[in-house]
Amino acid sequence: MEITHFGHSCVLVELDGTRILFDPGTMSHGFEGLTGLDAILITHQHPDHCDVGRLPNLVGENPQAIRIADPQTAAQLNSDDVAGEWTAALAGGQVGVGAVTARFTGGRHAVIHPEIPVVDNVAYVLGTATAPGRFMHPGDSFYIPFEQIDVLALPSAAPWMKLSESVDYLRAMAPRVAVPIHQAVLSDAGTGVHYARLQEMKDPGTEFVVLGEESATQV
């Protein structure tokens, strides 16, 4: 598997010849010129995960890509006619993308504040016939599936979390590899602090891999 980080929560996963892009949002960069995508998956409606201004060009460059989003976001994109037709990812469902199966789980965004409405949030699990839990993107949640995940995209900082919660989530998931995402809300110094704590406090069996900017990393 190769993963390319385009900042914040936007990652490109290349698995068994299949190219799947997650969460092209306003805090991400460099995804605009991508071509040859097999799927575009969006976890939830917040702009840092779904940039409606850049989506039309991205879809225009990848008209063949399957387009999946959480139910609320899919409804909004379809009603506003943003970048073609989007399919709602209902928890418990799945879709085949080339040699990969993308399964939909989770369902709700983490609570930011009791006065802020909680929106839909889909956690996506990618797998193959022989390895069902190869990769998971939880969006803005600490959802734990009832299976072992090989590579986890780990939320590392957000208005809805404390660093200790990210550490506990990483330990509970215990993936083979964890790659930090959702870091754009931090300064460079803050990113270093968060990454250092996660590296120090992870389970010994987990490898913590910081992805390079816009360059593919094999994990």
Largest sheet: 7 strands, mixed
Series of H and E elements: EEEEHEHEEEEEEHEHEE
Count the beta strands: 14
Strand order of the largest sheet: 6-5-4-3-2-1-14
Low-pLDDT stretches: none
Please work out how many helical segments DSSP would assign: 4
CA-CA gap between termini? 6 Å
Shape: globular
Rg result: 16 Å
Helix proportion: 10-25%
β-strand amount = 25-35%
Which structural class best describes the helix and strand composition? Answer: alpha/beta
Protein architecture, described:
- The protein has a 7-stranded mixed beta sheet with strand order 6-5-4-3-2-1-14, covered by helices on one side.
- It has helices at residues 55-61, 71-79, 163-173, 188-201; strands at 2-5, 11-15, 18-22, 39-42, 66-69, 87-88, 94-97, 100-108, 120-127, 135-137, 151-155, 177-181, 207-208, 217-218.
- 19% of the residues lie in helices and 28% in strands.
- Helix 3 (163-173) runs parallel beside helix 4.
- The chain is built from 4 helices and 14 strands.
- It is α/β, with parallel strands linked by helices.
- The protein is globular.
- Residues 7-182 form the Metallo-beta-lactamase domain.
- This is Beta-lactamase.
- Pfam families: Lactamase_B_3.
